[in-house]
Fold this sequence. Notes:
Blueprint: E1 5-7, H1 11-18, E2 30-33, E3 38-44, E4 50-57, E5 71-72, H2 78-85, E6 90-95, E7 97-101, E8 114-119, E9 127-134, E10 142-148, H3 152-155, E11 162-163, H4 171-176, H5 179-182, E12 194-197
Parallel strand pairs: 4-10, 5-10
Antiparallel strand pairs: 1-2, 1-7, 3-4, 3-6, 6-9, 7-8, 8-12, 9-10, 10-11
Amino acid sequence: MCNLYRMTSNTEAIARLFKVDTRGVNLPAFPAIYPDREAPVVRQDAGGARHLDIMRWGFPPPPGVARPVTNVRNLSSPFWHGALANSERRCLVPVTAFSEWSATPDPTTGKKRIHWFGMADPEDVPFAFAGIWRPVPDEMPRMAFLTCAPNTLVGAIHPKAMPVIVPRERYADWLEAPLAAAVKLAQPFDDAAMAMVEA
């Protein structure tokens, strides 16, 4: 479960990659984004225009659950159907790197180690998670991102899951496609395109 990522690319890079109008937006660096913190999100409205917004990480939870949901895994759950089926409630979450804790403690220190993952080619940074969002009355909108089975690189550290990374050429598919086609993007990202990166 990814509970820490960063987004340190500048506003111009986001504008180019996501084809979003960022005029008048001065986006700061986000070196450590934890649950319940603010983060940049790209969404698309019904007219096809993309917007760069700031949202809080953590989807309002289902009844009986105390904490907001940060990672969405069970895509067949009725709880997620409304957001997933409505393309206007899907979003892209810009990222420069994400972290996972090791499953077992380091034999030397006895403590679990944090590992950072990103793209092998610096030209492929930033990249994007597949996300969903919803408005919240009298509060900042909330978002969460999808997870799936890990690829080999991430699975060696965290065998349970990894964030769903959307290939650049499929951004429009995530933001516009019908539900059945969109959820097919929830699969492990290409190992060859990824690398472990510096903390």
